[in-house]
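To the team - zinc ion complex, inputs and output below.
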Amino acid sequence: MLVKTILNRVQKFKSFVYGNVKWIDTGEKPELDIELLARANSKAICSVCCQKASGYDRLPERRFEFIPMWGIKVYFRYAPRRVNCRHCGIHVEQLPWCKGKRRLTESYAWFLSGWAKRLSWKEVAEAFHTTWDHVFCSVEMAVNWGKENRDLTGIKAIGVDEIQWQRGHKYLTLVYQIDTDCRRLLWVGQNRTVKTLLKFFMWFGKARSDQLQHICSDMWKPYLKVIKKKAVNALHILDRFHIVAYLSKGIDKVRAEEVKSLQEKGLEPVLTQSRWLLLKKPENLNEKQAGKLAELVQYNLKTIRSYLLKEEFQQFWQYTSPYWAEQFLDKWCTKTMRSKIAPMKKVARMLKRHKPLLMNWFKAKGQFSSGIVEGFNNKAKLTTRKAYGFRTYYAAEIALYHTLGALPVPETTHKFF
Ligand SMILES: [Zn+2]
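Output:
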């Protein structure tokens, strides 16, 4: 079977035919050089208006990298024609295997971007002996195509979340669709200000915003403000995951302070290795850890009391009656306010302040479990942290859309990936 026969099966172009296939020994790595020719009598297509146009001249030959085969690099070789278009003037013809001045064929770019969903960009570059830039451009192409071709109809529920980006206090705002039948990243923006979320709603549009039925977010003030103004028909739910996170942060703070004061007093540092113990769900502790926790509970430490407050709060979500849930919340807040533990009091004050929003959880009947936003949050952090080798915001944004956006890919006759 000839290489040409295989190519005609997997990658056929309407107005072009494959010519000579040459084996090039470059010393280090062999290459396959495949000539492409315009079909006789076929007219070139203007790359601006996409219509047939009469020929003008021919440019020097260019090489376009195709998908490697058996560890052999594969190139298409073609001398593009220029057309004299009636509407647009003199332009290079449109090529079905490659857009603009790119050096990679579209098939190869889709191939690389497919692998970039499974491996880091660096790993993809290494595996296929290509550069990081080529992988990046391929993913960028896939993301742009996917964003242009995705379906944004019927979005009823969204979640607004933030992640820390790089070191220091830099944030990204992420908006997810969290409907049961479709969960994906919809939008990424820099910072977590009023302006950031306004940008999302501007892009999303009024008609779609009016159709929203549920929005989950945390208690971050700028978000609350914008959501109230822009999603007028939606029930706003405070995310369970974020509330648990606030409680955990409270414990962390109490613990750090207490470790310090115990050390100053020269007492045995009972708390030094207990951090994960206290943040884990009790049912996830192994026997040894449960033992240590039981031992810790004996000391009447602030840390332990905070831990017990947090555990007690879990009961809030179990209620089916909003009335009893509210009673519970009030009691819990009073108890916490009397605990004299400042970081926990801070959380209680915050929960009290946002009670109406907190109670919306029961109106939504627990439809939006903490797992959805939490799962996305973890994946998003992993995506930005993983050694993709990007330092710019733009590259991180592209990576997030690529891994979490559930973006569509074009239909092709042959699947290279
Ligand atoms: Zn034209």
